[in-house]
Structures are given as structure tokens and as C-alpha cells.
Structure prediction request, 137 residues.
Amino acid sequence: MRSLAFLFVLACSSDRPAPLQEAAPASLPAPAPIIAPAPARYPEAAIEEAQRSNRNACLRLVYKRGCSELRTGTITAHVTLDPAGKPARVEITGNTVKRDPKLVADCVEKDLATWTFAPPGEAPPGFDMTLIFSDMC
Prediction:
């Protein structure tokens, strides 16, 4: 009898872990959307002020032979400023001028290099600007 009692005690006080139960898969919370801050830009108001305060010497090129032949369209330039607001680099990136587009683009590239802009401060020093060449005829 002694052996039966021993078996009973052994079966009741076993240190074996309880059988594992499969847990329901944990659902992970949906990741929060990442909202990137808008990239800083050179102020549009500073570009507009530079266009008002600097003389565009290339506007005279609109009229070739009076109103009989016009050089109209747009020139887009990428301007990179030095810390003082002087153009360190001017690159023509778009040109829709009809009649002699290279002549007008070369003039704009040289002319913009002489303009004065507000110092960029903490803003990125590069920006695009568009100059419109239209006629008054």
C-alpha cells in the first residue's frame, strides 16, 4: 500500500508546468501616421520684393522690330543665394520664349546675377522664380 500512496502524492504535487494554452494572436496597434513637417522654403514675399525692387534689364528684349516680332513667354530660373542675399548661382531651368529663346535666357541669367535679395537666414538659400515676358502691343 505504501507504493500506492506514494504514487498518489507524486501525481498531486508534481512540479510539472501546466499544459500551455495557445493564446489568441496579439493584435498590434496600428502605427500612427507619420506627418512630416513642410519643408522650409525661401519666402515667396522676399522673391516678390526682389522682383519689384530690381530692374529687369531683359524686358527690353520683348520688342524686336517694334510690335511686329515679339519675344514673349516665361523664363524659370533656379537661384542660389549666398548668406548676404547675393546670387551665388543662377541656372535657367525652363524657357517658353518664342523667337530667340537663348538670347533672352542668357540675358536673364546675367541680369539675375546682379540682383539683391533678402538674406536667406535660416531658410534654404535656393529657390525657383519665373519671369514673364509679355507685350504691350
About this structure: The beta strands are 63-64, 69-70, 73-81, 87-95, 126-133. Residues 90 and 118 are 16 Å apart (CA to CA). The radius of gyration is 37 Å. Confidence is low (pLDDT under 50) at residues 1-14.
